[in-house]
Every structure is written in C-alpha cells, then in structure tokens.
TrEMBL record, chain A:
This is High-affinity zinc uptake system ATP-binding protein ZnuC. Keywords: ATP-binding, Hydrolase, Ion transport, Nucleotide-binding, Transport, Zinc, Zinc transport. InterPro entries: AAA+_ATPase (IPR003593), ABC_transporter-like_ATP-bd (IPR003439), ABC_transporter-like_CS (IPR017871), Metal_Ion_Import_ABC (IPR050153), P-loop_NTPase (IPR027417). Its EC number is 3.6.3.-. The keyword Transferase does not apply.
TrEMBL record, chain B:
Belongs to the ABC-3 integral membrane protein family. One of its GO terms (biological process) is response to zinc ion. It is a multi-pass membrane protein. GO terms for cellular component: ATP-binding cassette (ABC) transporter complex. It is found in: Cell membrane. InterPro entries: ABC_BtuC-like, ABC_TroCD. This is Manganese transport system membrane protein MntB. The lineage of its organism: Bacteria, Pseudomonadati, Pseudomonadota, Alphaproteobacteria, Rhodobacterales. SUPFAM superfamilies: ABC transporter involved in vitamin B12 uptake, BtuC. Keywords: Cell membrane, Membrane, Transmembrane, Transmembrane helix, Transport. It comes from Tritonibacter horizontis. Its main location: membrane. It holds the Pfam family ABC-3. The chain crosses the membrane at residues 6-25, 37-56, 92-110, 157-176, 197-214, 244-262, 274-295. It comes from the Bacteria.
UniProtKB/TrEMBL annotation, chain C:
This is Manganese transport system membrane protein MntB. It comes from Tritonibacter horizontis. GO terms for biological process: cellular response to iron ion; response to zinc ion; transmembrane transport. Keywords: Cell membrane, Membrane, Transmembrane, Transmembrane helix, Transport. The chain crosses the membrane at residues 12-37, 49-66, 72-93, 105-126, 146-167, 236-254, 266-292. GO terms for cellular component: ATP-binding cassette (ABC) transporter complex. InterPro entries: ABC_BtuC-like, ABC_TroCD. It is found in: Cell membrane. SUPFAM superfamilies: ABC transporter involved in vitamin B12 uptake, BtuC. Signal peptide: none annotated. The keyword Hydrolase does not apply. The gene is mntB_2. It is a multi-pass membrane protein. Belongs to the ABC-3 integral membrane protein family. The keyword Glycoprotein does not apply.
Amino acid sequence: MQLSLASQNGQSAAEAGLSSSPLCIRGLTVSYGEKPAVFSVDMTVVAGQMTAIIGPNGAGKSTLLKAALGIVPPLSGRVQVFGRPLDHQRARIAYVPQRASVDWDFPTRVIDVVMMGLYRDLGLLGRIRGSHRQIARDCLDRVGMHEFSERQIGQLSGGQQQRVFLARALAQGADLYLLDEPFAGVDAATEKAIISVLKDLRAEGKTVVAVHHDLATVRDYFDNVFLINTRKVAEGPVDEAFTAETLQAAYGGRLATAQVDQIATTA
Amino acid sequence: MASEFVTLSLTPLLIGIFAAVACALPGNFLLLRKQALIGDAISHVALPGIVVAFLLTGAISTWPMMLGAAGAAIVAVVMIEGIRRLGRIEPGAAMGVVFTTLFAAGVLLLEQSDTSSVHLDVEHALYGNLESLIWLDGTGWDSLLDPQALAYLPVELPRMAATLVVVAAFIALFWRPLKIATFDEGFARTLGMRTEWLGLALVLMAALAAVAAFDAVGSIIVIAMFICPPAAARMMTNRLEVQVGWSVVFASVSAIVGYVLAGYGPMWVGMADAVSAAGMIATVSGVILAISALWGPCRRRAGAPSGV
Amino acid sequence: MLFDALFLQLGYNATLVAVGATLLGAASGITGTFLFLRKRALVSDAVSHATLPGICVAFLILVGLGGEGRNLAALLVGSAVSAGIGLWCMNWLTRNTRLAEDAAIGAVLSVFFGFGVVLLTVIQTLGSGRQAGLEGFLLGSTAGMLYSDALVIAGGGAAVLVMILLARRPMTLVAFDPEYAAARGLSVSRIDMLMMALVMAVTVVGLKVVGLILIVALLIIPPVTARFWTERADQVVILSGILGAVAAYLGAALSASAPNLPTGPIIVLMSFALFALSLLVAPNRGVLAAVLRHRRFQRRVHLRQGLLALAQAQTIYEPLTLRLLARAGLVRADGVATRAGRARAAKALRDERRWEILRRDQAQEAAAALYDGLREIETVLTPDQIAEIDGKIVPAREAH
C-alpha cells in the first residue's frame, strides 16, 4: 500500500464536488462516556434520493443522525448541509424523531403538533393565519390523518402517532428529511402510507435519509444504503453496497449466513 | 364594612393572588418537564440567600435580600446541574443533596449571627406574613383613586404585581418555544432553538416568582402554588392553553378562599384568633387538587403511555 | 469541649443523643441506599414534610386529654400516622392519575406541610409557650432534651437498624433487580411498602434530632456519596451506612460542644463535606478522574482519526487533531506527515483492515464486539491470529 498525500488542489476540488450534497459528514466521532458510538464516519448523501442507514442494534445509527442534526454534540468532525454549516441551513431540514422519544400524554392536539413544524415561519409571536392552518391540514391529509386533527395525541395508536410526526416534518417544507426509525412498531397500513409519502417527496426532488431496521424491505424502499457499525462499513447504491459481503461486515456473526444470502439476492 | 375590607383584606388578598398566579404560570411547564420539585429546591435555598444578604448589609432591607435569595437560587440551580452532570447522579438525588445542604447552611448562619433583635427567623421564611400587609391609608374604595393613600400601599403589592407582569410576559413571549421544547426537545433543537438556555430561563423565572413571593407570603405557598394548581389543571383538560387558564383560576381561588378561611374560619368555629393564611392557602390548593384528581374529566393518562 | 464531646464526655443525655444519632445515621444511610437505587430519593421529602400535621394533631389530642402535650413517644406516633397518610396519597396520585411521581411528591409535601402550619398556629393560640417544643421538630433540637426523650431516640435508632438488618436481603434483591426478585417469588410491591415503612421509621426517629426539613439529607446524601466509591451495590449499602453514621456522630458531638450549633444543620453539613470530597477525588467516578480521563480519551480519538486520515491521504480539518499530531511529532508544521507519522498511519490503517476482517468472522464475534475504533488489535488477538488475518487482507484488496 502506498502512502501519499494528495495535492492541495486535488483535495479542494474533491471537497467542492462534495459540498453541494444535502448532507456531508466528515470524520464524525460521537461518544457517550468512554466508548465511541460513532467513530470517524464520513457520509455523503445523494441529492433527490432515498438513503437508508442500517446496522445492528447499538451500531450508532440514531446517534449518527442526532449528531448530524446537532442534537448530541460530536467529539470531533464536521457536518455540512447543502454545502454550508448546519446552523445556516436549519430551514432546509426536517426531522422525525423516534416515536418513543416524547411523552405522548402531553396536553396538546394533533393539529397543534403539526403546527409546530411551522415555527420557523411563525416565529415567537407571528399570527397564525388561515393559510398556516391550511398547510397543517394539508400535511395531515397527506399522511391520511385528516379526521384526527382535533384528537388529543395520547389517544392515537403508535402508527397514527408516527404519521403525525411525519406530518409535522412535511409542514416544515424542507429539502432534506431525516427520519429515525419511522417504521418501528407501526402497523402495515401506516408503513405503506409513510413510504408512499416519502416516495412522493423524492418525486418532488427532496432528499430522504432514514434509519431503518428491516433488512427485508431495504431494496423495495431505498435507492442507497449506508451501513454502519460504529464505523462506516459501506455506502452507495443498493445494488453495489447492500451485498452479502457488506452485510456480513456490518452485522458480523449476528446475522445468519443463509439470511444474508437471501436478503442480498432478493432484488 | 367596605372600608375595613379595603384597609385589612384588599392588599393581602391581591398580594396572595398575584403571588399564587406568578408561581402557577411557570409551574405548568415545570410540571410537564418533570421538574416540579425545582420549585421546592428554590424555595428552600432562599433562606441562606437572605441570611447572607443580611450578614453582608447588616440590615433588613428588601432589595439586598431579594438579590440574595435570587443569587442563592441561581447557585442552587448551577450546583444541581453540576452535580448531576459531573457526578452522573439522577436529578432527584442531586436536588436533594443541594437544597438540604444550602438550607442547613442557612439555618446555621442564622443561629450563629445575632439576628434575634431583628425580624428574621426560619418561621417567617416558611410561613411569611401575609396578614400583616395591610393598607392603613386605604380607608375605603375611594382610596384607590387617592394618590396620597396609594403612596402608602404596602410595598409588597406593586413588587408582586410587577413580578407577575414579568413572569406572564415571559410565558406569553416564549409560549411557542416553551411548548415545543417541553414536548419534544430534540425536535426543538433541530429548529435551532437553544433549549438549554430556554430551560434555564424558565427556571430563573420560577426563581424570580419564588423570591418575590417568598418575602411576602413565605415558602410554603411558593412550593404549593408551583405544583398544586397546575397539577389540578392537568386533570381538567388535554390542551396546554386551557390548562394554563385553569391553573390561574385554581391559584386565584386558593388564594382567596385560603385567605378568607384563615381570617374568618376560626371565628366561625368559635376560636378567637386567625390561623396562618399561607398554610391555609396551601391547604385549599391541596383540596382543589384532591377534587380534580377524584372527578376531573382528564384525570387519567390519555391512551397508552410513551414507549408502548 | 470538642474533645470531650467526641469522646462522649458531655453527660448522659448528650451521650445518649450521640449514640442515637449514630444509629440513626447508619439506619438512614442504609435505607436511603434502597431509595436511591430505586431512583425515588425525593420520596423521603414528601414523607418527612407529611409528619407535621400528625405531630400537631397528636399534641392537640394530648392537650385535649388534659396532658401537657410534650410526650415525645406520642408525638412520634402521630407523625408516623400522618406520614403514612401522606405516602398513601402520593402513591394514589401516581397510580390513579396522570401525574408523575415528582408532582405527587411536591403536592403532598406542600399541602401536608401547609396544613401542619395551620395547625401550628392553632396551637399557638391555645396558650403561650406551649408550642415551643413543637418548633423543635422543624429544624431539630437536642438542647435541653429530657432523659426520656434521649432514651426514645437511642432506642428508636437501634430498633430501626435492627429492622433494616432483618429485611436487608429481600430489599437488596428488589432494589438491584426487581424483575429477578419477582421471578424468585418475592412480592415487589410488598417490599416497596416495607422500604417505605423503614423510611418512615427513620424519619420519625430523626425528627427530634435533625428536624423534618433536613432528615431528607440523611437519606439522600450518604448513598450518593457512597456511590462514588464503588460500583458494587452491596458495598454501596454498607459504605452508605458507615458514612451516615460518621456524619451523624461527628455532627451530634460537634453540636453538643458549643452553643448555637444546631444538631440537624451540622449533621447535614458534615454529610455534605464527605460528599463534596468524594465528588472531587473518588478514583473512578470523581470529577478530577473523569476530567483527566475524558481529555485523555478525546486526545486518543483525535490522534487515531488523524492517523487514519493521513493514511488515506485525506485533509484534516480539525485544528485539535493537527495540533496533537504535530505535538507527537507525526506531522510537520505545514501538515505533511513525518516519517514516524507515515509509519504510525500505515499501522493504524492496517489495523483497521484487520478489524474489518475480524468483524466479518462469525467465529470471532466476541472479539469483534470489542471494536470501538480505538482498541489496539494486539489486545484482542494473538500474533498468530493477526498473521492469519493479514493473509486474508491482500486477496480481499485485490478483489476490489
């Protein structure tokens, strides 16, 4: 193996090429205590496509997403969104957290949660106009939750709660959508509704990145995969990066070989 | 009768209501953030703050003492946060370590310093002295229009009113960020909100309300009003806006009914002297909470708890 | 004077109080550990504040019966009854309403205490000077204590300690692993109740010594302190008991040695001094150790990342990484790798490749799980195993 430091020019050219990416992560390390959850990870998300972040439990999938969004502080590394630092691009990002991360007994209605997505438009004291309400209603419509808008959020099923979160992200009107396990513990109808909304977003030219745990559906749902197990294992189009070899590398002995072969060959 | 009411009861009633509402407003958010006991901690540590202020200035004067109490509240919040993070200790235990220690230090300082000549003791800090805040120059309802009489209003009244205005203005101005960050902190951060500063500002508002109320009505009301009216309001509705409205109503009712019961209740049962108004207001707020916990329309958790 | 006090030379009452306080400190330290491990430390705050109405009612009853109202044992029984009612209210609120435990604690403590204050003012109106004894329950006061009172405290402290020793096995099980305890046929709810009964007992006995506002400190501070020194739960229990006893003994003795040193606050401040010391210097969880460890860890992460970046000819953006590499003599000031840097970088990259192979190998799952980006592969594998892996690297590279 030969070690050579590329010329400064070559580097910056490569850098310039990457920087237009919706989400570009370089050398990101995040650690809870003494064990890095994510170590020195690079990631370049392809614009206008859907990318799945996959890996075994505890591999740092959610942590990667949260660090990319500035929710947890990284130990080192940097994040660029559409070629600029995260703080300048907040308006272009929408985030769907894990459903279990909030207390659903909070005293509020479905429509109020969706309105939270309009906060950047409304600001501290901006008046809520009919047009804002219309946006919120349209977003609920898109996830099939129109008739629930006045419902208290605690009265919803898990799948319905997930859809409300998605509607809130839609209301943000972003260009990049980051979702943390959107299909975890939801019913089949919800999964179908969510994936169709995400595919619509892609058709509109938006970029979608989702932490995903169901290997069987990766090929059907996503264009790209990002395999992680503390370090990046593979990244690229599903056909190239989602193979028996990369899965074995990400999951190690935790995945039966037969299973891997089956998943990797089902195209 | 009317003139007696204005002289003896109007100002304590108003002060009681303002104090109760000023505490209940931030209490709603503290309750939802599972920080209800921060009010408990703040009101305990006001004592050492006041004692230190007294020792430094050598006099019982309001502003240094309020500053001292506010300073102690900030010290306590910083200590709790520091111990929680540095020692990796759960927040409840960290709070318990800090407020008991600071309170103990306050009591010790009080015993060591010669304060027997002045009106500064632990009991006063606990129960306050709402009943004594009378308006001697208020001889009737017309006094409310008499600038000279108004000039002699107990100073606690305008101070408490100003505190209420500041706290209410904070809640109104930051309503949306507070609501979003309380419900979903991670999401709030992706919007670019500085949630840690917002949380600190909320605690500081609570401390402001506690310190201002503390001087007039003692720490029992403060702790009770941070928790009981918002908790009772929580059983009445599933909307935050409505919940805050209910908490204001409950706080005011507690203050009015508690004050009246403390002043006149004993006479009705044939006793000569009034009982502690602060204690009675806290008791009434507890009764309201009990009633709403038994019959409130939204007393149970809605649907499945989180994580299911 | 202090010397006399420390060696129990201050007379019979002071000695009894010191012994009682020590027993109480041990008992509360141990009981508090169970609360702390169940993450319910502040429940004790509600319990202690809820004693006040009971004390007042007991006093009123005693006076109503024509007595003097200063019978400590009777007052303590009253306090236990109202603490029990407060505890029941708290549990009812958390179980039957949407309120979280912290709100229930705050509601019970403020309302019960407020009602107690109302009763205190009622007692005040009954006659001058009579309530003097009751105010001692707020902050504790052992000065001018009767012999019989001292006996109640010493006896109570001993009794609580014996109760705890008898109940320690099931309580330990429940505190550390409720599910396992339930699987072994223990009733978790009943043992929780037993734990609360002990908290109540500690509180009641401690009322006269430290007062109801500060008794919480005896239940919270020693376990938190003990936790700094050990990761083993059974050791936390014992250490917490010892810390509680030491603080209580020193505090009681100190307070007896001079006027104007109230017992309760002194004991609490003693506890806190032990806590602050532990927070700073404890070997593993202490702040100093943690800060040093974190900085060392951060440096390791940056160095390692820097080496990998050098090896793969990537630009390093992090100023800290560059600084650390330069200080270790691995890069020159202009960011170009030195000879040593190139060698270390090559080694780092080779190790990464080795780990990659290793993590693909099902047979090596246990070793692979140790990967965290920093661990040296030599600490996991023998030289032979590494050589074997190296054999696999070349073909794998060529395949790409």
